[in-house]
């Protein structure tokens, strides 16, 4: 089962986007930066839904949520975060084999500036747009990645 799951076998290239790693979870900076700082939180073992998480994984997820929300607020100036556990894409297959993950989309009342470029959350106060295009340039993505990685890997107070 796990062999045919690419979420159980990330490539080295995919692992370049890991911002933070804990015992049970990975935090990736999402490819699509439609909402600046958007992350994907992936369980390290194959698990198909939230009800199959064990207590240790839940507790660590709670710690991860604290760490991420603090990062979004302190480093990026986000006012809130939209959390979702969707998994819909896996079910486009006739034989779905979902791998548990969550999406975190920081939301901004005020535009965020990176290297002089300003990014506005034009839907603030509303549901995120599911098909919005990525906003970040490659250089600004790199800057964002380094800022977030540094903060997330600091000892938390
Ligand atoms: Zn898997």
Layout of secondary structure:
Layout: H1 12-15, E1 18-21, E2 25-29, E3 39-43, H2 55-76, E4 80-84, E5 101-107, E6 112-114, E7 117-119, H3 138-152
Antiparallel strand pairs: 1-2, 2-3, 3-5, 4-5, 6-7
Helix pairs in contact: 2-3
Fold and architecture overview:
The protein is an alpha+beta fold and 157 residues long. It has one domain: HIT family, subunit A (2-Layer Sandwich). 26% of the residues lie in helices and 20% in strands. α2 crosses α3. The longest helix has 22 residues. Bound molecules: zinc ion. The site of zinc ion (ZN) has 6 residues, from loops.
Which percent bin holds the helix content? Answer: 25-40%
Task: Provide mean pLDDT, rounded.
Answer: 95
Helix count, DSSP H or I runs of 4 or more residues: 3
DSSP strand content = 15-25%
Provide keyphrases for this structure.
157 residues, alpha+beta, HIT family, subunit A, two-stranded antiparallel ribbon, 3 helices, globular, binds zinc ion
Give a quick rundown of the structure.
The chain has about 160 residues and is an alpha+beta fold. It contains three helices and seven strands, in the order αβββαββββα.
């Amino acid at each position: 089962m796990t062999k045919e799951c690419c979420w159980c076998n990330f490539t080295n290239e995919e692992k370049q986007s890991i911002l933070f790693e804990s015992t049970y979870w990975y935090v990736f900076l999402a490819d699509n930066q439609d909402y600046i700082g958007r992350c994907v939180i992936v369980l390290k073992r194959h698990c198909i839904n939230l009800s199959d998480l064990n207590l240790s994984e839940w507790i660590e997820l709670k710690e991860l949520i604290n760490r991420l929300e603090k990062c979004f607020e302190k480093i990026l100036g986000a006012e809130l975060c939209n959390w979702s556990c969707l998994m819909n894409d896996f079910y486009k297959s006739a034989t779905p084999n979902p791998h548990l993950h969550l999406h975190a989309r920081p939301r901004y009342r005020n535009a965020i500036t990176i290297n002089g470029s300003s990014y506005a959350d034009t839907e603030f106060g509303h549901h995120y747009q599911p098909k919005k295009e990525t906003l970040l340039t490659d250089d600004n993505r790199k800057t964002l990645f380094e800022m977030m990685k540094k903060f997330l890997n600091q000892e938390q107070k």
